[in-house]
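As the next step, I selected for study a record pairing a protein sequence with its backbone structure tokens, which the following lines show:
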Amino acid sequence: MMHDIFISYSHFDNIATLEESGWVDNFHFVLNRYLGAYLGRYPKIWRDNTKMHGGPDFTEAVFENLIESRIYIPILSPSYLNSHLCLKELETFYKKNEEESKIFPVVKLPIKNTPSPIGNYLRYHFFTYDGTGYIRSIDPSLGQDSKEEFFKVVSDLAMNLSKVLSNFEMESQEREKTKPFDLPDDSSAIPEDEIFEIVFSFAGENREYVRSVANFLKENKIKVFYDEHFEATLWGKNLTEYLAQIYKGNARYCVMFISKHYAEKMWTKHESRSILEKELAENGDYILPVRFDNTEIPGLPNTKSYIDLTNKSPAELGNLIMVKLGKL
């Protein structure tokens, strides 16, 4: 699974102050928006946002994702330079690529020494000096002026990243043209013994958002049941019976996209009955609710934790699902 970008940072630089989100959280969120606009698609950005530290399994997972990334963004600061893991990530990425052009350093705070793989390529600074020589952090939580400057620097970074990623995509397309032609297999067929990692239940009014999540997961090799991906298989089926088998089947989780439309539609009412039966059989660990609004669904406990989609992009939800599945 190839990532567009790997963000490397010290967790000390992401400690929230007056806001709920830390500096790195805000940087990731804004970069995702700007870069997505420039690319015309959601970028695949990986970073450790689990608050996990150390341990062989965790370290192995970090480096597996690192070597599958096209671009490396180190968030430089004194705490970054004091982190053995961060410096090891930088060294590993540079040895794999041996190109400074794939490293886009972000300087959060002044540093005394620049790591050798980075050289003098320090373009994106998120701090200034005031008239008295004191350091002033560029942070969206520190007022409107600082917020505007933060957005400006991230926008500049995103524009340059988009150019590099677009070149990668063109090179990849050229390589695909030279590959031998193979007849496509029927990707819309569901094998008899198929076990889905995730299934989706949603109202048609929310299809555009759900489609983006499903395509994101499919691109990342997640076995997801989304109806448009299996159009040929569903054609001619008795959907009442067939979909009930899907929702009661061996999937690990069902993402229920809750909205007023979901509560009103006859079809989703039927789906939810099958899903709630499986939820009961799984001792309450099958349904992953996500909400477009606060509509209540009969049979679904109000105490069940959910994800609010108000400010959550399809790619961000996709990443959360992958974390839940243990794939990130």
Q: What stands out?
A: The chain has eleven helices and twelve strands. The domain at 198-324 is CATH 3.40.50.10140 (Rossmann fold). The radius of gyration is 22 Å. The chain has two domains: 3-176, 198-324.
